[in-house]
Design brief:
The two termini are about 30 Å apart. By secondary structure, the chain is mainly alpha-helical. It has 2 domains: about 80 residues, Helix Hairpins (Orthogonal Bundle); about 30 residues, no CATH class. The chain has 5 helices and no strands.
């Protein structure tokens, strides 16, 4: 993860004195709420239609999800690069290319 982006997010939070409100529970709730707002862009539309008509809103909501996720990781002391690489490694084991290529099934069904 780009350290400059993380520093800008933390600077924005700290300049406003918001760290006091950023506990894991409330940040997790905020992530969920922002994901719901992202999903709202797709309600009653095809994926193609939503992307064509609502890209600005999709972009804003995805940014909110990512910002809250970064704040959550920082609050609980997680290293984003490390946890993402760990998850990719685990997924590589669950979904080996020779079994998963071109398939949508869950790893337990491959």
């Amino acid at each position: 993860m780009d350290d400059r982006i993380i520093k800008e997010i933390l600077k924005f939070r700290d300049e406003r004195g918001w760290k006091q409100f950023h506990n894991p529970k409330d940040l997790a709730i905020s992530i969920s709420l922002e994901v719901a707002e992202l999903l709202e862009n797709f309600q009653w539309s095809s994926s193609e239609e939503a992307v064509a008509k609502r890209m600005s809103s999709i972009q804003e909501e995805l940014a909110d999800v990512l910002i809250y996720s970064i704040l959550f990781a920082e609050t609980v002391g997680l290293n984003l690069d490390e946890i993402i690489m760990d998850k990719l490694s685990a997924n590589n084991k669950k979904y080996p290319v020779e079994k998963a290529f071109g398939k949508k099934e869950k790893y337990t069904e491959l």
